Amino acid sequence: MSLVQSLALTLPELILTVGAVTLLMVVAFVGDQATKAVSWAAVALLAVASLALLGPAGHGGAAFDGLYRADSFAAFAKLLIYIAAGTTLIVAPDFFARNGNVRGEYPVLILLSAVGMGMMVSAGDLLTLYVGLELQSLAAYVLASFMRRDTRSAEAGLKYFVLGALASGILLYGISLLYGFTGTTAFEGVAAGFADGLSMGEMFGLVFVMAGLAFKISAVPFHMWTPDVYEGAPTPVTAFFASAPKVAAMALMTRVAVEGMGGATDAWRQIVIFAALASTILGGVAAIGQTNIKRLLAYSSINNVGFVLFGLAAGTQEGVAAVMTYLAVYVAMTVGSFICVLQMRDTDGQPVETIASLSGLSRTRPGLAAALAIFMFSLAGIPPLLGFWAKFLVFDALVAVGLWPLAMIGIATSVIGAFYYLKIVKTMYFDDPAPAYAPMESKVEGGLIAISALFVSPLGYLAIPALGAASMAAARALF
To answer: With bands split at pLDDT 50, 70 and 90, how would you rate the model's confidence at 18?
Structure first.
C-alpha cells in the first residue's frame, strides 16, 4: 500500500491534527475571547472526522505495514469517541465562563486527545498502541488540572500524572517483554507467538500489558485515581474522562486481547474475570457511602467497567458485540448524567456537588429530576430502560460460553449498585426540598439532556436493530 493510500486511511486523525494546530494558532493570535467560536469549530471538526469514517478510513484495512487498522471496529469506537468529545466541548464554555477560567486551549486539548484515542482504537502494533495512549494521556493530564487556581483541580492533575506515568511504565515493560520473547511488536506476530504455547516470559508480558491497560479503564485494582480525579477535575472534563477515554481504552483492551493475544485466551480471560468481579463489587459497595455526586459517578464508572469486562471475558464475537453496544449506551447515560450535574448550581451560579442538595428536586426542577432519574434507573439496569438491554447482552454472552456462574454473580452485584442509584431518586422525589438551584440558562444543555434521556428511555429500543448490526459488524472485524 502506498503512502497516499495509507494517509487516506488515517483521514480522521489528519483532519483533527491539522484542525487542532490551526485552532491553536487562532487562540494564540486572537486570545481567549475566541474560545466559544473555537469550541464550535472543534465540534465541527469532530463532525467532519466522523463523516470521514464513511470512506476508506472506516473499512480500508491495514495501513503503514500493519501499524494502523481502519476497520469497522475502529470506526464504531471512533464515532462514540467523537460524539462524547463533541458533547463535552459544547457544554464547557459556559461552565468555565461562570468560574472565570475561560481558556482557548481547552478545545485544542480535547481535539489532540481525540487524535490519540483514534490511534489507540486503530492500533495494529504495540508501538502504535503506546504512542496513541501517551498522546491521549498527555492532553488528559493538562485537562485535569485546567482550573489552575483551584487546589482540587491541581491535585487531580498531579495524581493523574503520577499514577498515569506509573501505569505507562508498567505497560511499556510488558511491551518490551512481549517483544523480547516473540520477536515482534505486531499484534499478528504476538498472536502467532502465543499460538504454540505461553512461555514464562510471554506470560509476564501479557500480565503487565493487561495491568497497564486496566489502569486506563480504571478497573480494580488499578482504580485508585478515579474518585479523586473525577471529583477534582472541572465537571466538563470529568464528563469527558468518564466517556471518551473510557471507550478508547476499553476498545483498545478488546483489540489487544482478541487480535494480539487470541492464542492465549485462557490466560487473559482469568485476568479479565478477576478485574470484572472486583470492579463490579467495589464499584457497587464503595459508592454507597458517598456524599459527593461526582465521586459517586466515579464509582459508578468503575462498576460499569466491570460489566463491560464481562462481555470481553466471553471471548466470542457475541461478547465483543455486547461490549460495543454497552459502550454506546454507557456514553449516553454518563454524558447525560454529567450534564445534569452541570445544572447543580446555587443562586450565585457556583457549582454544588453534594447529593443532599438534590433533596426535593422533583418539586423545584421537575424536568431535571425526571431526566436524572431516567439516567439513574438506566445505569442500574432496570427495565424497560436501555441500560437493562446492555447488561442483558453481556450476561447472555457469558451464558452462551458456559460462564453462567459469573453471570449470576454479575446480576447479584448489579443489585448492590442499584441501591445507590435508587437512593438518588429517593432523595429527589421523597425528601424535603433543599434550596433551589439556579434556573437553566442554556437551551443547548437542556436539549442534550433530553436527547440522552430519550435514547436510554424505552424509545431507545427502536435503535436496537441498527445498533446491534453495527456492533456485530465491529466485532467481526476482530475475528
So the answer is: very high
Give the ranges where 343-442 is alpha helix by DSSP (H).
361-364, 366-380, 386-400, 404-430
Number of domains in the chain: 1
| C-alpha span between 64 and 332 (Å, rounded) | 34
| Domain interval for residue 61 | 3-476
Summarised one tens digit per residue, pLDDT across range 100-137 is: 667 778 899 999 999 999 999 998 899 999 999 999 99
Helix 293-314 vs helix 404-430: crossing angle, to nearest 10: 160
Rounded to 5 degrees, φ, ψ at 189 are: -70, -40
* Cα–Cα dist 415/168, whole Å: 34
Q: Which of 217, 3, 30, 258 is nearest to 124 (CA)?
A: 258
> What crossing angle do the helices spanning 265-285 and 293-314 adopt, rounded to 10°?
160
Q: What's the CA angle centered on 150, arms 107 and 103, to 5 degrees?
A: 25
Do residues 174 and 212 touch, judged by C-beta distance below 8 A? Answer: yes
pLDDT at 85 > cutoff 70: yes
**Closest by Cα among 185, 171, 156 to 66:** 185
How remote is the C-alpha of 224 from its chain's centroid?
17
pLDDT tens by residue, 163-177: 888 889 999 999 999
Q: What's the N-to-C CA distance of the chain in angstroms? A: 22
Cell numbers for 99 = 468560574
